[in-house]
Amino acid sequence: MTDWFDEHVPRHVRTLDVYQPGKPIEELERELGISGAIKVASNENPLGPSPKALEVLPAALSQLHLYPDAGGFALRRAIAAKLGLDLAQIALGNGSNDLLYQLVLATCEPTDEVLSHKYAFLSYRLAAQVAGRPFVAAPTTPELACDVDALIAAITPRTRLVVLGSPNNPTGSVVTKAGAERVLAALPPRALLVIDEAYAEYAAQYPEVDHVDGLALLRSDRRVIVLRTFSKIYGLAGIRIGYAAGDKAVLDVLGRVGRTFHVSSLAQIAAIAALDDDEHVAKSAAHARAQLERMRAEIKGPGVKVYPSLSNFVLIDCARPSTAVYEALLRRGVIVRPMAAWGLPGAIRVSVCRDSELPRVIQTINDVLAS
User: What is the model's pTM?
Assistant: First the structure.
């Protein structure tokens, strides 16, 4: 099979950096012979799904024999109304990652480049590589944030998509309003600026921090595409639903490469209800901010650094290889995310959890870092 693989699989597929998902908590408990493990590895909302979304799902189950609305009209109308945009400016996806893949397929010629920076979300690179498009990662600041000067220096006439997460996963850093405007001004005429705002609702709880508002930027420049998701603060990661906001001409092209019926009926119905659940959003954002502040204050160790974050996770520099830290935490029943795949071999990422679990998470991390 090795010969077949080498001979028949396209080179850009053979060399893909495969995304490695974390194991289910039940499988890890079985393997390690432990119970009561706490998972803080996937940036999920520990408060659960939007209660309003849960309320509407049972009534929809009797309609599962019908195909979903391929145009997603009801959900798109609801999103457009909430954001103050036109219906044609909203596109739906099977999570926001799905829309990023569509953007690469729909807009990039084989030699066009997708540009981001080191330590950005792995899917930016994967979306380019799956389509066989070159991916370029600009250097970051010493604090692992987007270095706008370095990013602009990396722009070439071949740059087609510039993708920036704000807040960025896994670092939690943001791009400032002025920084995003500078990147936009430096784009070649045919390029687009994609702002991944998967954690935007968390960042909105920090008005004292200067960070870009992708939707405001979109209203002033049609070259901006904003990606958002219902997976994070709305707690709907299990049914996969996200959306893009942008110029209607760009989003029309996405529909040409997307799969038919790629967003399920349950996802659309739940998202419509969740979109109106301001109480759950506010509660989840406040919960995350309080926990991040406590983790930054209480997680300590020789050489250890906890980075600031405007999301629902923190990046921790362990001052040692993170694989050993990850495995030691696993044995103690705390599941974090090691960051070697992101090019950060000494770091782990830790998501927020239930309030009842946080003391154990902090104590366990500190015990491992001190050992």
Answer: 0.94
